[in-house]
UniProtKB/TrEMBL annotation:
Pfam families: HTH_34. This is ArsR family transcriptional regulator. It comes from Phragmitibacter flavus. Residues 16-96 form the Winged helix DNA-binding domain. It comes from the Bacteria.
Length: 102
């Protein structure tokens, strides 16, 4: 029997799942790069990043671009975020296995 309650509701939302997938594959990523790759508006992306940050899954990094001197905001997955994402994928894998005919 599959326990769907084990799916992390914070990660399960489509936008946050997309962010976690991208940041887990390659971190850190600039806000503008995330926005372009995901096709999200500034407000939508900020909202999802705040939710993930509040859970301790991602962290915001502020720096200054060397060439332009402009402020640069990047995001990376935390250790807690990597663990939560791996656990989320394990639950999905169990669901896929259970759905295949024996």
């Amino acid at each position: 029997m599959i326990d769907f309650s084990q799916l992390d509701k914070v990660i399960h939302e489509k936008g946050r799942l997309s962010i976690m997938t991208l940041l887990t594959a390659r971190s850190p990523r600039a806000f503008q790069d995330l926005k372009a790759e995901l096709g999200m508006s500034d407000g939508n992306l900020v909202t999802h990043l705040r939710t993930l940050s509040k859970e301790g899954y991602v962290r915001e990094l502020k720096s200054t671009a060397v060439d332009s001197g402009r402020s640069l905001t990047t995001y990376e997955v935390t250790g807690a975020g990597k663990g939560a994402f791996k656990a989320y994928l394990n639950v999905l894998e169990a669901i896929v296995k259970a759905s295949k005919p024996g």
